[in-house]
Specification:
This protein is mainly β and 334 residues long. It has two domains: 58 residues; 252 residues, no CATH class. 3% of the residues lie in helices and 46% in strands. The protein contains two helices and 17 strands. The strands form four sheets. Strands 5, 6, 7, 8, 9, 10, 11, 16 and 17 form a nine-stranded antiparallel sheet that branches. The longest helix has 7 residues.
Length: 334
C-alpha cells in the first residue's frame, strides 16, 4: 500500500525514524541501529498497526576465505598443483517474510497477523554459505610447440536461509546452493604445427612457402561439469497461505525402479507425493541435478607479420564443435 507512514521507535534510545511506503508498499529506514523497536504504521482509511518487540541485530557480513595448496614440479616441463579451497559466508544479506498466515482453512488475507497488509518482506542478514573444494591441475609449459592444462574441481556449495515454502514465517533450510556444481573438468591445449622455417619440416623453405605453410597453430578447450541444481515444487497452495513454490514430500514407498529420464519426463515424479492439505511439504531446495554440461571448442589460427610491429591474424573458431546438447533443469511442477 502506497503512502502509509511508518514510524520505528528505538525503545532503548527513544529515537524515532520515519519512512513512507512507495507504490509497491515497500519502505526503507536507514541507518538502523541494533536494538528493540516499536513499529507504528498509519494509512488513511485503515486502522493503525502497532508491532512491538521487533529485534534488530545489525551485524557486518563476512566472507572468510582459506586455501592450502601443494605444488610439485614433476619434470622440467610439467607442474602439478593440488589445493583445498574453502569459503564461509556469515550474516549475508537476504530477504525474509514475516506476515504469512499459519496453514489453515479460510481466506488467506483474513488470517494474516498484520492487517490490512498482504505479504511483507524485509531485508535481513541471516544468509549463510559454505563452499569447500578439492582443486587439482597439471600443466605442461611451452615446449616443442605444445602447451596443455588439465584442471579438476570437486566441490560442495551449501547455504542456509529462511524458506517460506517449507514453513511460512518460520520456515528455514540448509541445503545446496543454486550454484552448486560438484564436479568440473577443464582441458585446454595448443599445438604449433612443426612446419615452416626453423621448424622440423620445411625448415629451409622459402619466405613464400613459410608464409603459407608455417606458423599454424591449433587450440582446443573442453569443459565437462555437473549440471546445475533445481527444486521440485507443487503447482497448488497446499498450505493455503499464499506462499508460492511450495514443496512436495518424499514418497516413503520410493520412486519407480524402471524410470528413465526423457525430455518430457526429466525426473521421477513418483519419488514425491504432495503434502497433506493445510501443511507444507518438506523437500529441500536444489536437491535435483540437471544434465551435465559438455562443451567442446577448437580453433585454428595463423599470424602474419606485417611491416613494422603490425600483425595480421587469420583465425577459424568452432564453438561446441560436435553440437552437443546440455539441457537445464525442468521448470515443470510436480
Amino acid at each position: 500500500m502506497a503512502h502509509a507512514i511508518v514510524k520505528a521507535t528505538n525503545t532503548g534510545t527513544n529515537i524515532v525514524q520515519t519512512a513512507i511506503t512507495d507504490s509497491s508498499g515497500d519502505f526503507v529506514i536507514t541507518p538502523v541501529a541494533a536494538g528493540t523497536y516499536f513499529l507504528n504504521v498509519t494509512a488513511t482509511g485503515f486502522h493503525t498497526i502497532n508491532a512491538s518487540n521487533i529485534e534488530v541485530q545489525v551485524k557486518m557480513g563476512q566472507n572468510q576465505h582459506y586455501r592450502l595448496s601443494v605444488q610439485q614440479q614433476l619434470s622440467p616441463k610439467i607442474v602439478f598443483d593440488i589445493a583445498y579451497v574453502g569459503n564461509h559466508g556469515l550474516h549475508l544479506q537476504s530477504t525474509d517474510d514475516f506476515n504469512e498466515p499459519s496453514p489453515a482453512a479460510g481466506a488467506v488475507q483474513r488470517r494474516r497477523q498484520f492487517q490490512p497488509w498482504g505479504a511483507i518482506t524485509f531485508q535481513s542478514q541471516d544468509l549463510g554459505t559454505t563452499y569447500e573444494a578439492l582443486q587439482a591441475k597439471i600443466e605442461r609449459r611451452v615446449s616443442d610447440g605444445i602447451t596443455g592444462l588439465i584442471s579438476y574441481t570437486w566441490s560442495k556449495f551449501m547455504q542456509s536461509n529462511q524458506s517460506p515454502p517449507l514453513g511460512g514465517n518460520i520456515g528455514s533450510e540448509r541445503t545446496y546452493s543454486q550454484f552448486n556444481t560438484p564436479q568440473n573438468l577443464a582441458i585446454s591445449g595448443s599445438y604449433q604445427l612443426p612446419v615452416g622455417r626453423g621448424r622440423k619440416y620445411k625448415a629451409n623453405s622459402s619466405h613464400f612457402v613459410d608464409a603459407v605453410l608455417g606458423g599454424w597453430q591449433v587450440q582446443t578447450i573442453i569443459v565437462l561439469r555437473s549440471g546445475t541444481p533445481y527444486t521440485p515444487v507443487v503447482s497448488t497452495d497446499r498450505a493455503n497461505t499464499g506462499v508460492g513454490n511450495q514443496r512436495p514430500n518424499i514418497n516413503p514407498a520410493g520412486g519407480s525402479p524402471t524410470f528413465h529420464k526423457t525430455l518430457s519426463s526429466w525426473f521421477d515424479k513418483t519419488a514425491y507425493v504432495v503434502a497433506h492439505q493445510f501443511t507444507y511439504g518438506q523437500v529441500k531446495a536444489f536437491t535435483l541435478q540437471s544434465e551435465a554440461f559438455r562443451q567442446y571448442d577448437a580453433s585454428i589460427f595463423k599470424n602474419f607479420a606485417l611491416p613494422g610491429e603490425s600483425v595480421l591474424s587469420f583465425r577459424v573458431e568452432f564453438f561446441n564443435l560436435p553440437n552437443t546438447t546440455s539441457f537445464n533443469g525442468s521448470e515443470r511442477n510436480h
